[in-house]
C-alpha cells in the first residue's frame, strides 16, 4: 500500500502520562488528530504536536461552582412513582421508592399542585389537587380519600443532582472524582453564563483545533434504581429537557399548557415504540427549536476563534435531532457518533448540513472489555466488518476510537489489528474517490409513525443494543444499511399530506402491533390505507415484517391482509377451517438459500387469506414467508428478519421481486450470500467483501450474462477494476 494510505482520517484517544506511547501509536495507526476522553486531559506536549487536537466540551457541567451556587437552575426530570394499591382510604406514596436517591432530589421549589399529578391508574382519573398533600419531611404524598383497591401513582418533578454520564462512569468505571450536577440552559442567567464561560475557555485554549461538544444541553433519559443499576434508559428520551420554566415557555410558544402526563405517559415516558402524541411532538419541536437557537451561539463562538465545532451524537444530544427541522440552523462543522452496527454507521454518515462525519468504533477502551482474559480484538473485527457494509454505501469521512489508550496498549494483538482496520478504511476512501456505489433504480421506503426524524433508528431501544423483543426488526434496518438500494424513511402523515413519491419502488412496514413502527391506529385511517392500496394495485411493492398493518378492526387484524395475502389469528376465527401448505417449487426469493432460514422471534398464528398467496416457508402450521400479487403490485410477508448474511440476501431478493425487477438484481451482484459487492462506476473500482470468518468462493456479476469467479479469505475486501 502506498504511503499516502497509511496516514489520515483517524482520531486517536490520548491521555497524559504515556506521551511516548501516544506518539508511537499516532505513527502506527496513522492518526492525524488526537482527542481527550471524558475524565482525561492532554499534556501541553501532546497538544503542541503537529496533529489536529479535539477537546471535549461539556456545556452544562463544566463549571461546578455555578451548579452548586444555582441549585434552583439544575436540570430536572419528570418521574412517576410506583403503582400503589389502596387498602384503605388513606394512602401514602413514597415518591423516590425504587429510584437512586443520589441521582434525584424531589423538587420542593415550585408549585407542587400546579406541576404534579396524582392519577388513579385503575380508572385513569386525575385526582383533584385538594384530595392529596405532600409531606416534605417524609417525602411522601398522602391521598386522603383513596378508593379501596384502586392503584395510584404520582407524577412529580425532581432535580438531577448527579450528571447522568458522570454517574455512569463512577458506577461502571470506578471514577472517584466529585459528583457533578447539570445546569439548565432554559434559565436566561445560566444560559448567558454558558456562553461567557465558553468564550473564556476558547481564549484560554489556543491549541484546541476542534471543540467536541458532548453534546449541548439535554441528556437522553436515564433513571437508575435504588440498587444503583439502570432502571429506565431511552436513547431518544426527552424526559431530562423538562422544567417548570420550560413548560411555561412552551405555553407561550404553542398556546396551550402541558400536563405532567404528557411526559410521564402512563409510565412509558414516550418511548419511541409509542405512537407519538401531538403534545409530545409539539414538545420535541419546541425543544429542538430552543436547542438549535442556542447551540448556534456556541458554534458561532467557536468559529469566531477559528476553531471547528463538532457535536457528539450521544449523551446530551437531545434537541439536536440530526434529521429534524432545525439541525441545519446550528451550523456545525461535523458530527461524531458511536458505531455499533451498520445501521448506526448510516445514522451518522447520512447526517446532512455538516462538512464531515466521524465514527467512533467499538470497542470502547474501557475496563469492561479490556481486562485480563478479555478479547477486544474479536469485538473490533466484528464491529468493523458489520459497519464496513454500510461504509461502502455511505461512508463516514473519519474514524476513531474512544476511552483510555493505556488500556488498549496492554493488548498487542489488538494494536496490530487496528492498524489493519485503519489502513483498510483509508483504502476504501481512496478507491471510492468520493463517488457513490451503484444502487437499484428504485428507492425503498421504511414506513412508520416517526418517518424521517428517526432515520436509521427504527425499532431501536438504546443505541445499537440487542433486545430479544426487537432483534427480528432491527435486523431489517441492519440488512438495508449495506444494500445497493437508496433508503428513505417515511411517516403515515407524509402519505396523508404528500402521497407516495414516484421514485419509491418498495415500502417496508416492520414492527409489533400497537407500536409506532407498525403504526397502530394509523391502519384504520382510510386516507392511509386507501392511498397504499391504490399505489400497490398500480404496481408498487409492499413488504410486511412481523405484525405489519396490524390493528383489530372490522374482522381483520392485518388491515392490508388483502395486499399481503396473510392475516394473524387472534382467536376470533378459530371456527374457520384452513388448509395452508407451503409450495414445493423454489421461488425467486429463495434461490440463494442454502440453509434453514432464521426468522428470529418470528410470529405465531399467521395464515393465508387468499388463494393467490404463495407460502414459501411454514413452521408448525405458521407462515413465516409468503408472497402475493395485488393488481399490478406485489407483496411479501416475513415473520421476522434478524441480521445475518443469508437474511440480507433474502431481503435483497424480496425487494427486487416486490418491485418486479428481478432481472435487474444481477447488476453488480455476488452469487455467495456471505459476500457482497459495491461498484463505483465513475472510478472503475469494485469492492468485493467477505462478511464471514471462512474462505468464500463467489461469482461477481456485472450483469446476468457476465461474471467472474473469486476466492476471498476470511473478512477480506478485494478490489477489482472494470472497464469504463
TrEMBL record:
Transferase recorded as keyword: yes
Keyword Chloroplast on entry: no
Domain Lacto-N-biose phosphorylase-like N-terminal TIM barrel as annotated: residue spans: 8-439
Domain Lacto-N-biose phosphorylase central positions: 443-663
Enzyme Commission number(s) from the entry: 2.4.1.211
Keywords: Glycosyltransferase, Transferase
Residues in Lacto-N-biose phosphorylase C-terminal domain copies: 668-720
GO molecular function: 1,3-beta-galactosyl-N-acetylhexosamine phosphorylase activity
Name recorded for this polypeptide: 1,3-beta-galactosyl-N-acetylhexosamine phosphorylase
